[in-house]
Amino acid sequence: MLPRPCTLVTLLTDFGLSDPYVGVMKGALLRASSKVQIVDITHDVPPQDIETGTFFTGTLIHRFPAGTVHLAVVDPGVGTSRRLLAVAAHDCYWLAPDNGLLTPVLAGNAAVDVRAIDSEQLGVQLEPRTFHSRDLLAPVAAWLAAGRYGFSALGPRVLDPVTAKVAPEQGAHIVHIDRFGNLISTIKAAQFVTAKGVRIAGRTVLRQQTYGDVRTGELLAYVGCFGLVEVAQNGGHAARSLEVARGAPIELLLA
Questions:
Q1: Residue 62: what pLDDT?
Q2: Where are the domains of the chain?
Q3: DSSP designation for 173
Q4: Contact, 135 vs 28, CB < 8 A?
Q5: Looking at residue 109, what is its pLDDT?
Q6: Are β-strands 69-73 and 8-13 bridged in parallel, bridged antiparallel, or unpaired?
């Protein structure tokens, strides 16, 4: 059963805010339908960084009302033959380039339907070929959110969407570092239940509940707001203190 659109559209891009790209894309959304409500998730994904965009996209699952249209654009292949996808999953709709950005959305059996957006079928001219988020994805998001088009009318079904694959040898690692310097790992909360802490950059960091459980300047490991284990420094910047970057290995220490 496909969810009923609720007029809400979220935006997640690597466009930044110093150029007019985000504003122009919002203009395209509103030209297609003045009924839509727009929520900015972030436009600060590092340029062309699909891995970070994928992580951010995954954080939206089950965080918005049913029928929300999530539009994610990190698209190094813009203008090429790569497809643009529309996915119905997790009681929402998801629009993005077919480059792995929707990997967490497509995980398991969550996807109800996956479609390749057909610009010709929708009567959209893609000239120039370098701003598909404005010229195709934004109008489609607005039409879908406002109920002008049904999901199945967007294009043919896709059985082989691109998904990112993590090398088995990579193991648990830091997937994102936020602006506070907190290290967000791939370790899920359920794996941390019986752990006493983690090992990272040669340091043992003990499990705590929150920053206030340690003194200023001390490190702690805890389950963060994304349901993943994080390492932070109370009053400091854990990434700088530990001199680690995204991709750094982290080891779970069992009690």
A1: 95
A2: 8-154, 168-254
A3: B
A4: yes
A5: 77
A6: parallel
